[in-house]
Structure formats: structure tokens, C-alpha cells
Amino acid sequence: MADRPPDLSSRNPDWWRQAVIYQVYPRSFADADGDGLGDLRGLTERLTHLAALGVDALWLSPFYPSELADGGYDVIDPRGVDERLGTLDDFGALVAEAHRLGLKVVVDLVPNHTSHLHPWFQEALRAGPGSAARERYVFRAGRGARGELPPTDWQSVFGGSAWRRVPDGEWYLHLFAPEQPDLNWDNEEVRADFRTTLRFWSDRGVDGFRVDVAHGLAKDLTEPLRDLGALGTAGEAALRHLPPGSHPYWDRDEVHEIYRDWRKIFDAYRPPRMAVAEAWVPGERRALYARPDELGQAFNFEYLEAGWDAEELREVIADALVTAGAAEAPATWVLSNHDVVRHASRLVLPPGTDPDAWLLTHGTAPAVDPAAGLRRARAATLLMLALPGSAYLYQGEELGLPEVADLPAEVLQDPIWEQTGHTRKGRDGCRVPLPWTTTGPSYGFGPGAGWLPQPPSFAAYAVEAQAGVEGSTLELYRSALRLRRKLLDGETLTWTPDAPAGVLDFSRSATWRSVTNLGTEPVPLPPGEVRLSSTPLPGGGVLPPDTTVWLA
Questions:
Q1: Average of per-residue pLDDT across 154-179
Q2: Is 354 assigned a catalytic role?
Q3: Chain mean position to CA 203
Q4: The model's pTM
């Protein structure tokens, strides 16, 4: 691309290459009708918050009809709207208002599985073994003298066997919750139905798609199905121990044929629809999903998983830029989402801490200092926003929200809690409804209580408490996004030679340099005009620990 600030208007087909995209988990964003669940009308009424923040697009997590067995990712109808969240007319009003405000709209696709309440799966249960209806899913006879054992040793991501038996004796595959049966992407009817879904939402003005479990669609279903042995319990980590593309159900080479087919649909629209893959695969494999004739972009989870360590982060950043460049794609950067501990808490956990174990202690072992966590989160945000490529924000991080680690067991709704026998608490702590005001039964989320309880500390994080307050986290995000848009220039960076140990120092252009001190001691502040700092600077020409500055 030319080295000039990107045109993020609707006329530019490459608007997404350096965009800032804000993830909305709709059930936790804003509740307009008072039932405790966030909804589309509530989101539409709050879109001015996103416009004032300065993001380029919103990514909407699933809003489809669902029994919420997995927070909306168990989809009953991929071309509908959950009646608790609104109607198709409400969705149309949301898109229209977003576009009026200059915001693009990206929606989640869930192609790996459906809900067990999907009409297709209900038909498969009625139709019985050998039926065409069952060919849309993955049904198999069991092992053992009476078929009483699962067909393979494959394990669910949420714990336990990935197979469940139905009353007629057959078993169906569910790589996630039992309420989420996997589709059979060897079936042409499945492929055709998803083409219809892509056109359905594109015709309604959707600008792009986030593809859930993008690495999981293609499966080796040749008989006999392969056991994984000890690797079966390793989940996606098993990919590092098998030849590329050879895992029976993760990251198979055949999946790319599906996305090349989708790209033809995306490119039939003007401007073309963008897409981004959620693919938990090693970097060199991730690049395949981001190729121009496939999805065009893929999430970089190595960055999200990296510790607060300058050497580790520099290596991850450099590798990500090389990997993305090999695919002619922009890099992606993300610090939080609906599946992980919020980074205002995670980044101050001691190295080697297991987040699942930490959550089981209600966030007490080890204890986390909220002020230290927020300081580090703010520094991490400015670092991320200075990197070339697309940045994805998660709702509430602009308020500095920490993880709600002490949710009591009786309110947990993530299926991970039950499916793992209460050994993993799950993801509810990052999905607690947002605080908008400093008072009220749900701090402005809605007229009544929200579907998950908010801690009293949320009042201090509310939008009302931070808007217009100099130095607040919300105003830091607003300032950073305004300045970022002005400073963007090309899609590369240049590392500063001889940076002190523990410091990440790079330039994006002659007028934009980002310096982050990840060490424990102050370091000399490089020369230049300070355009923005993640925390107030003490003076004396030093950069304190856990601080990022942008210099001219």
C-alpha cells in the first residue's frame, strides 16, 4: 500500500487493513427493554459512544436465536435474530445508524456447529441412522460389543468426550458443548446453506464477518476414524506435535477450499466484504487463512498470549509482521475478548500463572493490584495501537475494566463450569454487563439488574464517571484513537537500535515513535515531543516502568 494515511471511508475496499474494530458482546452491552439481557436497541442507542471513542467498526458477537448453552455460539437460526435481543428490523436500524455515524458493521459467523435445537439437527434425530438428514452432521456407530463406547477418543474443548449418544444408539460429534453438534462440511447442502447466509447478511449491509473456529470445519471422516491417544487431551496444542494439516479435525488443508469459495461471494459486493479468521493455529499456518483469496485476515493469538516481557513481545510482533506480510495481509492485534481474562488483570498475574486456577480462587491467589493492572493495561493499549495493522478492542477495555474473578458459583452460566466438573470457572468474568452510570441497579446497563451481577467497584469505571475527565482511561482511548488516525503512515515499523533492556522502541514514520518501558526501573526518555503518554510523566527526562509514550 502507498505510504499515506488510509482512507477508511465506505469507498475504500481496504478500509479494514489498519482499522480499529470494537467487539460488542451484545448480551452485556446495553439493555433497552429491561429483561436483564443486552439487546440490539440498547446497542443502537449507545452507538454514539463508539463514534465518540473513534473506532472504525463494531464487531457484533452472535445475536442469533440461541438457548445460550454457549453464550450465543449455539445458533438455532443463522439468519435470524434472537427475540430476546430484537428483530431483523432492529438489526436493520442498527446497521443504518452505524453507517450514519461512519461505523462499519462486522458480524460473527459460527460455521463449525449449530445448536442441537436447529431444525436440521432435530430432523436428524427423528430421521434415524443412515438418513440424509444425519449426513449434515457427524453421526457414527459406537465401539464396544453394544456400541456403548464413543467412536473415538476425541475430546471436547470444554472437557470430556467430544461424542454424545442419542437414543437409537448412534453418537454425534460435538467439539464444544453437547448442545453444539458439529456440521459435516463434506456435505454440499451444508456448504450451500452457508453461501445463503453470507449473502443474507451482506445484502443487509453487513461490511464483514468474523469466522468462529475457522480452523475446525474440515475433518478427516474416512473410516476408521483415527484416535489421537495422548494428544487427544492436548486440544489445539496437539497441532504442534503433528505434521501440518494432518490433525483429524483441526486446521486441515481442505478447509481452505471452503474459504476460497466464500471469497468469491465477498468480492461480488462493492466494496468487497472483509473477513477475519479465529484460527488457533501456529503462525505459519495462520497465514494461510489470511491470504487474499481466502479470508484476508486472521487473529494473532500469540500476541494476546504473550507475557509482559519486552523480548518476548518483540519476537511475537516481528514474527506476526513477517507472517502477515507473507500472506499479503495486515497483522492483527488484540489484548482482550469474550473468551479470555481481561488484560487489566491478566497482565499483572505472575509469569506462569494458570488463569483457570487463578479464577478458581476468585482472583485471590495471587492477589491482583487493580491500580498496577490498569497502569500496565494502559501502556499495553498504546503499544498495540501503535503497531501496523488492525487493532481489535473488547467492550469495556476503554473503561479499564478488570476481570470479575469473584463471581459466585450459583450465577455462572458458561458451560465450561459444569462440563469440566467445576474444575474450570469459565469466561463469565469478562462478560459482566458494562457500567454506563455511577448509580442504578445495573449502573445504567438497563432499568433493572443484569444477567450477571456487577461488583460495586464498577461505579468508578462507568462511562459517566470518566467522560470528559482528564487522565481517565476512557479519555486516553479517545485521544489515542484520534491521534492514531492522524499519524497512520504505511504498514511497517522500524525498530530503534540499541534500545535499553526491557524497552520496546520503534518508529512508524518520521513523525511517530512509540516507546514502552516494560522493565522495573525508569529509563531515559528519548528526545522528541511527547504526543501522548499512558500515564503522567514525572519529569526529569525519564520514562517510568509500565508506561508507553508516543513521540513526534
A1: 95
A2: no
A3: 24
A4: 0.95
